[in-house]
Structures are given as C-alpha cells and as structure tokens.
C-alpha cells in the first residue's frame, strides 16, 4: 500500500508544482452600440383598467406605418390587430392607430425601448409605481407556420 501511495503523492506534487501559470488579463471589450432609429419590433405590457392584462407587440416600419397586435386578457384572451402611423420628434414617438381613435406617446430611452407617456408628457406610472415600456426586440425569432393538410 505504501508503494502505491508514494508514487501518487509524487505525481500530485509534480502536477501542482508545475502550474505556475499567470492568468492573463482579458482584452477590453468594445461597447455594444444600440442601433439608431425606431424602426423594428417592440413588445410589452400596457395599462388596462377594464382587463387583467394588455400586451402589445408593435411593428414599426420604414414607411412610418405601425401595426400593433394587442392581446387583452380577461376571462379569455382576445387578440386584435390595430394599424396606423407613427412619427418621431426627437426622442418622442407618437402612435396614431385605428384612424385616429387611439393615440399613444412614448419616450425613447438610451436602450432603444419606448416608455409610455401620460397626458402631461411625463413617463406613465400606475398606482403601484410600475412603468410601462415596449422593449425593442433586436433578434426576432423565425416562426414556422404549419400548413393544414
């Protein structure tokens, strides 16, 4: 048993003595640049007094058109599509939907997300202090649609 223990201890000592490797510092990383412009897809919760939850998925295109897929959760989920136009004035983004019947104002933050504004132009907060943001989706998933046989 001692004959086996002595070589194992020697090999272990040899392996630990040879590992005098100095860790090299990592190279500095380039900062991630947020793409310019508001064109793209956004997703997030919006306030809703008459429902449990309201989820928006917004598609803003190059020709200033907007398409919103709105999911409203009550006892069941209702999904509808709203369309209209959007405009950009500095960091403010205005959505005019359903032939002018619905209007939303947003503030674009440094991450590219859109924060909902209230009537006074301040960032909207509900009674619990929750803000409502549409988060910009930079890498959209490709969805496979099954065709019916």
Which descriptors apply to this entry?
1 helix, single chain, elongated, eight-stranded antiparallel barrel, mainly beta, 149 residues
Record the SSE blueprint:
Layout: H1 2-17, E1 40-46, E2 53-60, E3 65-73, E4 77-89, E5 92-97, E6 102-108, E7 114-116, E8 133-137
Antiparallel strand pairs: 1-2, 1-8, 2-3, 3-4, 4-5, 5-6, 6-7, 7-8
Q: Could you explain the architecture of this structure?
A:
The protein has 149 residues and is mainly β. It has one helix and eight strands; from the N terminus they run αββββββββ. The chain has one helix at residues 2-17; strands spanning 40-46, 53-60, 65-73, 77-89, 92-97, 102-108, 114-116, 133-137. Strands 1-2-3-4-5-6-7-8 form an eight-stranded antiparallel β-barrel. The longest helix has 16 residues, at 2-17. The chain is elongated. The termini are far apart.
The residue ranges in which pLDDT falls below 50 over 5 or more consecutive positions are none
Instruction: Find the count of extended strands (DSSP E, 2+ residues).
Output: 8
Largest sheet: 8 strands, antiparallel, barrel
**Span of the ends, CA to CA:** 72 Å
Helicity, in percent?
10-25%
Structural class call reads: mainly beta
How much of the sequence lies in strands comes to 35-45%
Element-by-element helix/strand order: HEEEEEEEE
Mean pLDDT: 83
What does the overall shape look like? elongated
Radius of gyration: 27 Å
* Tally of individual helices: 1
Strand order of the largest sheet: 1-2-3-4-5-6-7-8
């Amino acid at each position: 048993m001692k004959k086996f223990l002595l070589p194992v201890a020697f090999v272990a000592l040899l392996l630990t003595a040879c590992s005098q490797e100095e860790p090299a510092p990592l190279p500095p990383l380039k900062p991630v640049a947020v793409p310019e412009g508001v064109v793209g897809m956004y997703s997030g919760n919006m306030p809703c007094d008459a429902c449990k939850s309201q989820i928006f998925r917004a598609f803003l295109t190059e020709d200033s058109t907007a398409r919103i897929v709105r999911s409203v959760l009550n006892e069941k989920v209702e999904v509808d599509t709203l369309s209209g136009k959007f405009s950009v004035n500095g960091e403010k983004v205005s959505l005019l939907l359903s032939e002018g019947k619905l209007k939303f104002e947003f503030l674009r933050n440094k991450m590219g997300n859109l924060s909902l504004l209230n009537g006074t132009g301040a960032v909207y907060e509900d009674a619990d202090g929750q803000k409502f943001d549409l988060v910009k989706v930079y890498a959209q998933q490709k969805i496979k649609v099954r065709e019916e046989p």
